[in-house]
Amino acid sequence: MHNIKIHQQNDTEQLKQIIKNYPFATLVMNTQAGLEVDHLPVILNHVNGVDVLQGHIAKANSLWKAFENDQSVTVIFHGPNCYISPNYYPTKKENGRAVPTWNYVVVHVKGTIKAIHDSEWKLNLLGNLTTQHEAEQSEPWSIADAPTQYIEKMLPAIVGVEITIESISGKWKVSQDKPAVNQQGVIDNLSKSRDTQSLEMAELVKNRQS
After folding, report:
1. DSSP symbol at 68
2. pTM of structure
3. Could you read off the pLDDT of 4-16 as tens digits, one per residue?
4. Residues forming a β-bridge with 45
5. Where do the domains of the chain lie?
6. Which CATH number describes the domain made up of 5-177?
7. Do strands 8-9 and 158-173 pair parallel, antiparallel, or not at all (unpaired)?
């Protein structure tokens, strides 16, 4: 990933927060058949003193057969992103020297992957995933709401995946290369939007200013 110094995010907690807030990951790996890319929701966990990403894929998905345990992979998390118009910049009115761009936040995780078939592990994972994503529901669903026999029948249809994290890097392209007056212009214009990502980007630009 091209990541100049001004865009680098080195705060580990902020990197992890993007993983937690945007858990639908893009998994990239090299296999004997070539480059493979897939998508899955994951949860960030801490196991035996190391950070891991845990998720699952369908057993019908041949991906789990294509890699060897402890194979290197890259996992990508996309945070808020939005279009930035030159009209947001007050300096554009003065000299016209401005072009459109795109602001975005992205986190890359590198690590090693393994497949897990243990039913208890998979059941625990599903419990953690549903607890996390049902938290804002007025009546959160839990695995206990489904018949035990039904869940036991479904478990063999998935394969667990666990990625041991070796490194995390982040890119926060949030107008920090612009003069303060243009940064404020970005904040003011994005704050008028009804789009959630634009509003989140406005906050990111504001936080990066301070």
Report:
1. -
2. 0.92
3. 999 999 999 999 9
4. 52
5. 5-177
6. 2.30.110.10
7. antiparallel
